[in-house]
Design goal:
The chain is mainly α. The protein contains twelve helices and no strands. It folds into two domains: about 70 residues, no CATH class; about 180 residues, no CATH class.
């Protein structure tokens, strides 16, 4: 629907909500160059990494791996981004891209742009916390643990579906990893081949559910970065993600029986191409009909 409206009618929103409509005015030509965009981004990345290493004790003799493992990511990112901001302001003034007053004007504009994302994240984390306090994830994992041993051949597909649902409802893939992976690895009767397939199904399902979830921080930040309506963003990505998830579910059913990636991956790829071709045939008729109505 959204793509058709954009192609036929030039409607990029498919919703009356225009959260950033007033921010797309003409931008005056300045002195900035591409390098003035690349260097600040590199400065931010480097200093954030150094900030995390600092909080992990890199200056106290820890190696890089232990420093990353023991770091306080929130504090490290705050320190790194704050120092990067100061350096970037000095850089912009030295390059005469922006003066001091123009740099200061960016603060309230940036804050206003982040308010919707902050509010959505706050409500999303609140909802996720309520779900966790209700014990929904433990309830689902308990049911799964009790019945999984009797369905070993279907186990990869079941794990994939449970991981998708759990990650979608909680908005976190890593939390789903922490709950399901210990259960999966503790199931008796799994051979090494089936264990690898089942673990991969858990990882894939958790990432898929997190990608689709409207309360996931990655989804919220993606819609904010694209400056589009959040729910609109979720609605537009669901058909693509669910199509791949459905094909993957069938692939994991097949994988539970053959237990060979060299067989399952080509079969799943052919199945995916076939589904995409079928979708193209079904949607092309609708596009032709819509084009006829638009020209009429």
């Amino acid at each position: 629907i959204h793509e058709r409206n954009a192609i036929l009618y030039g409607d990029l929103y498919t919703t009356p909500d225009r959260p950033y409509e007033g921010q797309d005015g003409a931008v005056s030509a300045g002195k900035g160059k591409v390098i003035d965009l690349v260097i600040p981004v590199l400065i931010l990345i480097v200093l954030c990494i150094l900030g995390m290493l600092y909080t992990g004790g890199i200056l106290e003799g820890e190696n890089i791996i232990n420093a990353f493992a023991n770091c306080d990511a929130s504090l490290g990112l705050s320190l790194g981004s704050s120092l990067a901001l100061i350096i970037i302001i000095i850089y912009m003034m030295a390059r005469k891209v922006l003066n001091f007053n123009e740099c200061m004007k960016c603060f309230p504009e940036g804050f206003k742009a982040m308010v919707p994302a902050i509010l959505i994240l706050t409500f999303a984390w609140t909802l996720s916390g309520i779900t966790g306090l209700l014990g929904a994830d433990e309830y689902v994992s308990g049911i799964f643990k009790g019945s999984a041993a009797n369905l070993l051949f279907l186990l990869p597909a079941i794990v994939f579906a449970v991981a998708v649902g759990m990650s979608f409802s909680t908005g976190t893939s890593w939390g789903t990893f922490g709950i399901l992976l210990p259960i999966v690895t503790a199931i008796e009767g799994l051979g090494p081949e089936l264990l690898v397939i089942t673990v991969s199904a858990c990882l894939a399902g958790a990432v898929c559910g997190d990608h689709c979830s409207p309360i996931s921080d990655t989804t919220i930040m993606s819609s904010t970065g694209a400056m589009c309506n959040h729910i609109n963003h979720v609605q537009t990505q669901l058909p693509y993600a669910l199509t791949v998830a459905a094909v993957s579910f069938v692939g994991y059913i097949f994988a539970g029986f053959v237990k060979s990636a060299w067989i399952v991956l080509p079969v799943s790829l052919v199945l995916m191409l076939g589904v995409l071709y079928l979708i193209k045939l079904l949607t092309s008729d609708k596009e032709v009909s819509a084009n006829g109505k638009a020209t009429a």
